[in-house]
Amino acid sequence: MGHWLQILLKKLYMEIAKVNQECRLLKSRGNIPMYTEKSIDELEPINIKIILQGINDEKSLEKITIENSKIEGMGLNKAKFTHCDITQTTFDNCYLRNATFHNVDLTGSKFINCNLEKTKFRICNLNYTEFSKCKLNIDEILENLPTQSNLKLTLLKQLLINQNEMADYKSSDRLLLMIADEERLDWKNKFLAKNSYYNNMKSIDRLFSLYYYIVYSISGFIWGYGLRISRLIRFAIISILLFAFINYTFSLKYIDKINNNSTRSLDLKESIFQSFLAFSNNGFGEYVPVGFLSNALFIVESSFGIIFLGFLVSAFYRRIAR
Known about the structure:
Blueprint (H helix, E strand, L loop, with lengths): L1 H24 L1 E3 L2 E4 L1 H6 L2 H9 L6 E3 L2 E3 L2 E3 L7 E3 L2 E3 L2 E3 L7 E3 L7 E3 L2 E2 L3 E3 L7 E3 L2 E2 L1 H5 L6 H17 L3 H24 L10 H21 L5 H21 L3 E4 L5 E4 L2 H12 L7 E3 L1 H31 L1
Parallel strand pairs: 2-4, 3-6, 4-7, 5-8, 6-9, 8-10, 9-12, 10-13, 11-14
Antiparallel strand pairs: 1-2, 15-16, 15-17
């Protein structure tokens, strides 16, 4: 009996020593407990869960720091993280559907295969944060975009990749528009050298920035970067009315094939009809242009119509392909 009692006491002593070692590994910074890569890795999986499982069921975890760690397979449905630093940390296959992150620094953290469908992000730092194959509350994340243009673009592109992986094409189109608009503003800032980061740019680089800014602006106005067919229709209507106004204002001459091939100017209604025929490339119709200016206007408008048709087919094909 004495021998077995000695073995039992030795095991008990070892367990107590192990618990003491684990407690020492939970470092602190002031009143803020800190879990580092070393402490998390040396703890058993059950102990990692003990650290975090208490914040479920609408309980909160405040003022903690987790760095360079991996949190895997945790059910943190109603967890509340408040005033925390969770940096360079990976959340892998975690259920955070109704969780709340309030004033949390998530710099460099990754969410992989996580459910964030109704997760709330309030005043969070999402610099270099990555999402992969996650169900997201996209509106919440967009309210916490970084202020710096390059960091904002990085996060938007990460979100775009995630939404494509999840086959959420509606939000993907929305993100594409935001990325295009942000890139357009970035080209403008480069040309104007609005901050010190762009002050050392060469003159030729600034000219290229101006060129890309103009291209992005025209593309956004004409057809919303291929994502908004309504803008393309608007462009067609504006073009038809503009060419009709030019035709009517300058009283360009046409041959009226109905009235004995007489040469005359067109009234406003006839100008709009003639402009529509030219833009849609349906021929001259009842009125044949006479002279250089009339023919030049007809050629230019027909060219605009061909470009419009190409954009329209491309936009519809993109929607059908998806």
